[in-house]
């Protein structure tokens, strides 16, 4: 798989409660973004096993502001339990950054209740590596 550091939302980010991704991706001026076809795929890899009874949902958000004020949720994952969030495992969720988004994109990790441990890496790739 091809990875680009500038498309990295989170690198082993600890997620114990609801939080935004460490990084916000700047897609550039509107005229520099495509309007058709699938967007950039995002891959999620668990670094440290999650511990807790809650669930984790991942939202893709977009905004006109780099600080993500007024962000709009454009996609969301199913809810993952701690049993799904095991170290070394890629999540079975392969969304794409939607086309026609606003300039800035981030992820919002929504925990239904606190986790006592767990890290996640999320990054845009040239093509998602499914099943491996």
From TrEMBL:
Domain of life: Bacteria
Name of the featured protein: Uncharacterized protein
Origin species: Microvirga mediterraneensis
InterPro entries on file: Bbp16
């Amino acid at each position: 798989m091809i990875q680009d550091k500038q498309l990295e939302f989170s690198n082993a980010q600890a997620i114990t409660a609801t939080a935004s991704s460490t990084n916000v991706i700047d897609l550039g001026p509107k005229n520099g973004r495509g309007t058709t076809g699938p967007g950039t795929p995002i891959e999620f890899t668990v670094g440290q096993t999650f511990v807790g009874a809650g669930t984790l949902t991942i939202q893709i958000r977009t905004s006109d502001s780099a600080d993500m004020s007024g962000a709009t949720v454009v996609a969301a994952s199913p809810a993952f339990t701690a049993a799904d969030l095991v170290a070394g495992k890629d999540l079975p969720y392969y969304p794409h950054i939607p086309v026609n988004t606003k300039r800035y994109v981030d992820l919002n990790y929504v925990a239904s209740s606190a986790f006592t441990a767990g890290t996640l890496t999320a990054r845009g790739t040239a093509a998602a590596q499914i099943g491996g």
